[in-house]
Design goal:
Layout (H helix, E strand, L loop, with lengths): L2 H12 L2 E2 L8 E2 L2 E3 L2 E6 L2 E4 H10 L7 E5 L12 E6 L7 H9 L24 E4 L2 E4 H9 L10 E4 L12 E4 L14 H12 L5 H8 L3 H9 L8
Antiparallel strand pairs: 1-2, 3-4, 4-5, 6-7, 8-9, 10-11
The protein binds zinc ion (2 copies).
The site of one zinc ion (ZN) has 6 residues, from loops.
Length: about 240
């Protein structure tokens, strides 16, 4: 992931961590997949603990290593409880195996019906499969298996024409280039502007309304940004 995308992911993670006392477990207020805190970003699911470890330790080269919880609480976000585990054995990507797994969970109907995802534990309404320690969105797989040449790990997003997020009917799916944060109010603000807002509010004592106007967001959102606890360990 490029550094600029990491900033967006960092923001998203920050917004869902309940920062507690120094040594206690910090609660994750976002989604969980198989007991692990997970965040949905740029069309993909990511394990939160891995990125918290990376941000907290400024170590962005942990790709080949597992991040474990010393507190054994998989949902914990306290960076002091995160340690590097053993090396991940990179298994080879096996599309046939993945296809079999995928087909076992999709309810294939007529060309017009929504093909719903039968496996439970939807993430944000989307179906997913774990394969080789990677989480794959069900509808992305549906698109992948019906469109030769589509790179499943690409940045392009697969959207639904129907309103059913777990639907895997390829006729209801279309591809779109990744326009960052489309339809997402928070995405109007970059990491840089968030810092600018904090500076304007705390240092220059400019009112929320004025700042809100300048950035084209609501005063409530400015309040949210300035009130939110900072990750002091990131500074
Ligand atoms: Zn913990
Ligand atoms: Zn559908």
């Amino acid at each position: 992931m490029a550094t600029k995308d990491l900033k967006g992911l960092e923001e998203k993670i920050l917004n869902h961590v309940h920062v507690g006392k120094r040594d206690e477990c910090w609660k994750w207020e976002g989604a969980f997949v198989q007991g692990c805190a997970t965040v949905y970003h740029e069309g993909k699911s990511h394990y939160v603990s891995r990125y918290i470890y990376m941000f907290a330790n400024k170590n962005f080269r942990v790709k080949e290593r597992a991040v474990r919880h010393s507190c054994r609480n998989k949902g914990c976000c306290n960076p002091r409880h995160l340690v590097l585990g053993r090396d991940l054995v990179k298994a080879t990507f096996d599309p046939e195996k993945l296809r079999k797994k995928y087909l076992a969970y999709v309810d294939i109907g007529s060309a017009d019906d929504c093909w719903l995802w039968k496996k439970g534990g939807l993430n944000n309404g989307y179906g997913f499969i774990m394969h080789n320690r990677t989480s794959y969105m069900a509808h992305r797989l549906a698109y992948y298996f019906s469109h030769e040449g589509f790179d499943i790990s690409s940045d392009k997003l697969v959207f639904h024409r129907c309103k059913e997020r777990s639907c895997c009917n390829p006729n209801h799916l279309y591809l779109k280039d990744n326009i960052r944060g489309e339809n997402n109010m928070q995405a109007k603000l970059t990491w840089k502007s968030v810092q600018e807002i904090r500076q304007m509010y705390f240092d220059e004592k400019i009112s929320k309304t004025k700042i809100a106007k300048k950035f084209g967001v609501s005063p409530a959102e400015i309040l949210y940004i300035v009130r939110r606890r900072l990750w002091d360990w990131l500074k």
